[in-house]
Structure formats: structure tokens, C-alpha cells
Amino acid sequence: MVDSDPSLTARLGDVNARIDDAARRSGRDPVDLTRIVVTKFHPASLVEQLSALGVRDVGENRQQELSSKAAELRHVLEAPLRWHFIGQAQANKARAIRAAASVVHSIDRERIADAFEAAGTADDAEAPPLLDVLIQVNLTDDPARGGVRPDGLEALAEHVSGCRTLRLRGVMAVAPLDEEPAAAFARLAEYSRRLRAVAPGAEWISAGMTADFPEAISCGATHLRIGSAITGPRPARD
Asked: Which domains does the chain have, with CATH numbers?
């Protein structure tokens, strides 16, 4: 077991305190929130330190990093991690992502859902394991941004609900850069309500990052994706 960096311990404690404070100010119980630590570009050793500090939910944006870190740490950690894939998914990488992740936050079209479904049924098992998924919603007018358009939410939800190896858990979004986060997250809360009309159990709202997680909490977020506030600056890449 690696020793934890005191600065990492301090940053994690500070973020935990801020989450607790934001939850209580919104009349919510902090225990109902899941903090996902995003470790993009950081080494597996940092994930090992986080695990030693009690972190159980870790997020990755890229399939290669997800697969590599999950494999490296699989037999090292005393407690299992729940790996969240939060980046834009590609159909040709669905099998590799599914092999490593417990949750995929970025289902935004039928083709992606079908790729993850196919990856879960390749062995023709009678009762294949379920993969928790969220539908990513595009909160901007830019079609190049990830996420389904709001007017396509219900149709995609119906499609995902029909996939026998996928368990639809809720919605995910990233706040636009040119809008107040609270306004964007309020729209996402309404999309969550619409989703639950199709899939009543899909109550998760994945929203809020380092710069805006208090606003996300006030609008009902259940899963927070927090990176640099906990991990520190990302390492320089070659």
C-alpha cells in the first residue's frame, strides 16, 4: 500500500467539507451524493492513494487510461473501485470500456447503446451482468458537443430501456461555458423529470465538476465529477 500525499489528503478533505456544506444549504443529506474523483492523465499510483483514503468511485475520460489503470490496480487494492467512464464513447471501444467500467455516463445515441448492449451479450449468457448507464444531454445549441438533444431524450430512453444488459440510471450533462451553471443544471433537473416518466427508476443526475459542483448540488445532482480540486493539476503530457 502506498503512503498518501498529505496535500492529496488535505484537498480531498476540503472538497468533502464543501460538498457537505453545499448539500446542507440545499436541504439535502450529503450521504445521498456520490463523489467521483476524475483522475484523467494521473498515474495509477494516485488512484491507489485515493483508495487508501476511502475513495471508491473513480472516473476516466479515455478508454485507454480506464483499461490500463483498472488492469494495473485490479489485484493491488484492498477494496474494489467503481470505475465510471465519463468521456465521449465510441462504438468500436464499447467492449473495452465495458470490460473495465461499472458505469458509463455518456450514452447519447442509439448506436452507442447498441454497441454496449452487443458487448454485454457476446457470450450468449442467459443472465448477462447489467451495465449501469446514463444518457448524456447536450445543454448547448452546438450539435458538435456531446449529448442527445433534449427533444430526443425520451426516444433514446425508450431505446436504452429495451437493451437487456443495460440498466438506465439517469442523465448526465456538462454545463455550458457561456451560461450560469445553476440555470443549465435547472434545465437538466427538468430533463431528469422527463426521463423518469419513461424510466421511473432512473433517478441519477450526474452533474457538477470542480468549478460548479455547489450549483449542481442545489439543482439535485446525485453524482459529482470532481478532478483537479482533489487530484491537483494534471501532469504535463509528452
From this structure: 6-231 (3.20.20.10)
